[in-house]
Request: fold
Amino acid sequence: MAEIKEYLPFLIPVLIIEFALLGYSLYHIFTHEHYKRGSRALWVVVCLLLSSSLIGPILYLVLGKEES
Amino acid sequence: MRQLRAFVKKEFTDQLRSGKLFILGAVFLLFGIMSPATAKLTPKLLELVAEQDSGFKIDVVREVTAVDSFDQFFKNISTALIVFVILQAGIFTKEYSSGTLLLSLTRGMVRRRVIAAKTLTLVLLWTAGYFFCFGVAYGYTAFYWDVSAVPDLFEAVMLWWIYGLWYISLIVFFSVFISTAVGVIFCVGAVYLFYSLLGMIPRVGKYLPTYLPNAGSLTHGESLSFTVPLAAALSLIVLLLAASIPIFNRKQV
Reply:
């Protein structure tokens, strides 16, 4: 536990960014019908699977999200 | 001035709506956190490797200091710059393909102001993101280590910032005659590659703008001269931006 405590100042903000990006991406996926590429199922899976590395949501925002 | 301000405002609305502002903020914040985190974790990881009987021996003797943390920062910020270039490469080309630029031009927007506004937007985004990232890294570093002993940190940070500005001028310059974002990214990459190859010649390397990222080693107390690469970068920035205007004036939108 003491080990983890030492890294909490790093962990907490990283987790916040992670969940914020994931939440925003998922919200966007479910409120939109059409994407630049891919389907809803694909993007949900990609976002959830690759969320811990932030890559999933970023991939969606860059490649999948349609410009409004 | 009013036109310029309105256009910059429009650009920022664009950035916000497309989610780019959000991604940039997250990326810069993440890299700001990761730099001190990596510096802090490295000895732990080395210890883990050393504990496994892997056949080679690692002695962890050196204490981690603030300098290591800033080293990581200067390493990570280059990745952040790549993300920045990829995200922003479409700032002109997007408007060519959608035809929205025509709307502002026919309503009396002067072409050079379009360039000025977009350049200003990129500069503001890069400046805010970069110093935000550095601020986060600095905060963590100051929390864990003693930062008072790091030499020439200010110079190093400023030189790296100007290095980023050089990429902005490259984006603007190439956007003026290339009509896809991928093309712009490719050309900026090609310029980087060209300068890197040129930089392999030892006597030439230290006079090129691509030498600026080495500013990170200033914090090691190394005495390197950055006068020539700084002058080279600044004059290239001015030259590229100045050259973009007449080319853009003649461009068919």
Summary: The mean pLDDT of chain B is 89. The two ends of chain B are 23 Å apart (CA to CA). Chain B has one domain: 2-250.
